[in-house]
Amino acid sequence: MGVELTALHWIYVLFILFIICFMVMRRDTTLVCIAGIFLIAITATGSLSGSVSSIFTSFIFAITELLSTILVISIIVAMSRTLTATGINDVMISPFARFIRTPALAYWTIGILMMVISWFFWPSPAVALMGAVLLPVAIRVGLPALGVAMAMNLFGHGIALSGDFIIQAAPKLTADAAGLPVGDVISASVPLVIVMGAVTTITAFFLIKRDMKNGKLTAATGIANNSPSALQADSSNAQMLSLNQKRFFALLIPLLFAADVAAMFVLDLQGGDATALVGGTSIFILLIITLAAHRNKGLEKTTSYLIEGFQFGFRVFGPVIPIAAFFYLGDSGFTQMIGDYLPKGSHGIVNDLGIGLASVVPLSKEVGAITLTAVGVITGLDGSGFSGISLAGSIANLFAAAIGTGAATLTALGQVAAIWIGGGTLVPWALIPAAAICNVDAFELARRNLLPVTIGLVVTTIVAMFLI
Question: CA 457 to CA 436: how far, in whole Å?
């Protein structure tokens, strides 16, 4: 076999199974992850005090690894709050309203615009940025609110978030867990994101057209109540900026982010460097808009918006930290969290398991692809999409070590499956932003998304088998 599997390896496998079981039962996995870290630490060191300390050390390690991701998302959300409060988002999106003349144009225009904005702002803030402006236009040309919600949901929380090419939060998590460079995972995810996105959105479009034609999808379908949503209510803001100022900022912001993208290509910026560029630009935008809009109160409002952003960031990533801490134990994080206690000749717990598995079970790329899709689906059931992708990356590393190839593709496949399920397209409690802005029932939205997303996952898994 070439490597000795010890109690550490079996405890790690056991807790992976526990985590999957708890996710299937829709229970929180934080306690399980902490117990796993403690048990692995005490087995490795034999020291009670050292094992208790390892829990805290593992959290520090995970937060350190994730800090740039948490920070950039917090800043982007803070910036989006300023755009919503000042009405700049209305001006940014309103020119696109003139292109929406039919239900089909409404679906594709809203979807593609949502995807592009979500690459830079993340989907939940993007919903607030554009939903209130384009929803009435779409309804006026005959696309029901449920169809608008599906378009925003599938293109934003599906395509944009599963690839996450600009902010790179998702590939950072999966790449770290799989022990791969971020750029490799992003490159491998491009064909999978394209296939998944195309199959799902086209299928959803034809189902919407069919149901509109036979009367199953009408303006009243899925409507939650008759009151405006909270996000729509927020859009009626005070006139803090003149129309010319709003137009200036509405033009400046896309130009600045376009310059960021150009700089990424020209300077070959990836991972942390790309994240830092987007984050710095977002801070700059936040500052100038807040000072221009709030004038004398600009200093205090800047802090207020940042606090809102950080609250959002840590609320989203709070459940991720213990899970990521556990899965970092499977690779290079073990030595930094616990110490040099791995068996002699070990290449890390996950790599050891992969080598051991390869010597016992003849694994194929087909089995690996199906398993990673299943793991992604299961881990997405918690409604986060992000809390389980470390597990997907870790298992992808394990299978790639066993098969001998395809680490980046398997990692990307697990990431795509987890985020499409849990990031906001199927799990009802993850659908709330799009459902709220469109004033539709989240469970009805999930039911409508089920068939397109399922077909997309099947096709994408088959494509991945050929890419491994």
Answer: 26
